[in-house]
Automatic annotation (TrEMBL):
<dbReference type="InterPro" id="IPR004107">
    <property type="entry name" value="Integrase_SAM-like_N"/>
</dbReference>
<dbReference type="InterPro" id="IPR011010">
    <property type="entry name" value="DNA_brk_join_enz"/>
</dbReference>
<dbReference type="InterPro" id="IPR013762">
    <property type="entry name" value="Integrase-like_cat_sf"/>
</dbReference>
<comment type="similarity">
    <text>Belongs to the 'phage' integrase family.</text>
</comment>
<dbReference type="InterPro" id="IPR010998">
    <property type="entry name" value="Integrase_recombinase_N"/>
</dbReference>
<keyword id="KW-0238">DNA-binding</keyword>
<keyword id="KW-0233">DNA recombination</keyword>
<dbReference type="InterPro" id="IPR044068">
    <property type="entry name" value="CB"/>
</dbReference>
<feature type="domain" description="Core-binding (CB)">
    <location>
        <begin position="4"/>
        <end position="85"/>
    </location>
</feature>
<feature type="domain" description="Tyr recombinase">
    <location>
        <begin position="102"/>
        <end position="275"/>
    </location>
</feature>
<protein>
    <submittedName>
        <fullName>Tyrosine-type recombinase/integrase</fullName>
    </submittedName>
</protein>
<dbReference type="InterPro" id="IPR002104">
    <property type="entry name" value="Integrase_catalytic"/>
</dbReference>
<dbReference type="Pfam" id="PF00589">
    <property type="entry name" value="Phage_integrase"/>
</dbReference>
<keyword id="KW-0229">DNA integration</keyword>
<dbReference type="InterPro" id="IPR050090">
    <property type="entry name" value="Tyrosine_recombinase_XerCD"/>
</dbReference>
<dbReference type="Pfam" id="PF13495">
    <property type="entry name" value="Phage_int_SAM_4"/>
</dbReference>
């Protein structure tokens, strides 16, 4: 949707997304995917038929595009045809691809400590510590404001997290001390972690680069991203026997099933479960003792 003839169509789609309060990044991604579809067609996307959509899905698959990208494209086209164009007949024949659910990469407590110690400077150490210490997503970390830190109640207010929901998470004493040290050094006024332009927050790209650099410096031989710290936060809480429903609230998950995934990677919890074979052994020993 790049030329002037398509601008009213783009405007209508953006209005539809705005009415439904889709996040700015989501709106940008939706528009870009429809533009890609239009480029494939070589004409306005509102003239597409079901066969055109089918050909596009085949094109994406043949191009080696992964399941997540294909599913995101299908989701975008469903919105475009169902909401903006009111062409439900096309939506009925679009299908998402089942994605095998892989276990997340999780760091040990010792690896987390090494990564945080290797962070490039106090600013990034504080930001990465917030990601791990409160289980925050990358965009939630960079969106923190100084006023979100409530040292009296020892909580962090997360505004407009995923799904546009606010939530409170715990503020540990050690994280508070680190954030205070950062504040005393930099004196941020609005954003807790400002970018190169103090009027703007640090970008998620900058934060992820710092995370990768710290992992490399710490010689951690795992695929580490900012989200790995969030996975580790949830897993370590589970290994401390924190109720999974409490962890769900802290993470801001809409469904318990999403949080329950961490029960599969909480190795400490798994290793401490007594196998029923042990009971067989105990019963056998008791039997022979009576004989």
């Amino acid at each position: 949707m790049t030329d002037e003839a398509m601008s009213p169509l783009r405007r209508r789609m953006i209005e539809d997304m705005t009415i439904r309060k889709l996040a700015p990044k989501t709106q940008h991604d939706f528009v870009q995917r429809v533009k890609n579809f239009a480029a494939f067609l070589g004409r306005s996307p509102d003239t597409a038929t079901f066969e055109d959509v089918r050909r596009y899905q085949l094109h994406l698959t043949a191009s080696g595009v992964g399941a997540p990208t294909i599913n995101q494209t299908v989701s975008t086209l469903r919105f475009f045809f169902r909401v903006t164009l009111k062409r439900h007949e096309i939506v009925e024949h679009t299908h998402v691809i089942h994605e095998p659910r892989k276990l997340p990469v999780v760091l040990s407590v010792e690896e987390v400590a090494r990564l945080l110690d290797a962070a490039p400077g106090l600013k990034y150490k504080a930001a990465l510590s917030a990601a791990y210490g409160a289980g925050l997503r990358a965009n939630e970390v960079v969106s923190l404001k100084v006023s979100d830190i409530d040292s009296k109640r020892m909580i962090i207010r997360v505004e407009q997290g995923k799904g546009g929901k606010d939530r409170n998470v715990m503020l540990s004493p050690s994280l508070l001390a680190l954030l205070r040290a950062w504040w005393k050094m930099a004196r941020p006024q609005g954003w807790l972690f400002p970018g190169r332009d103090p009027a703007q927050p640090m970008t998620t790209r900058q934060l992820n680069r710092a995370c990768h650099a710290a992992a490399q410096m710490a010689e951690i031989n795992k695929r580490v991203s900012l989200h790995t710290l969030r996975h580790s936060f949830a897993t370590h809480l589970l290994e401390q026997n924190i109720d999974v429903r409490v962890i769900q609230v802290l993470l801001g998950h809409a469904k318990l099933d999403t949080t329950a995934l961490y029960t599969r990677v909480a190795t400490k919890t798994i290793s401490e479960v007594m196998s029923p074979l042990e009971h067989v052994g105990e019963t056998r020993s008791a039997y022979y003792a009576l004989c």
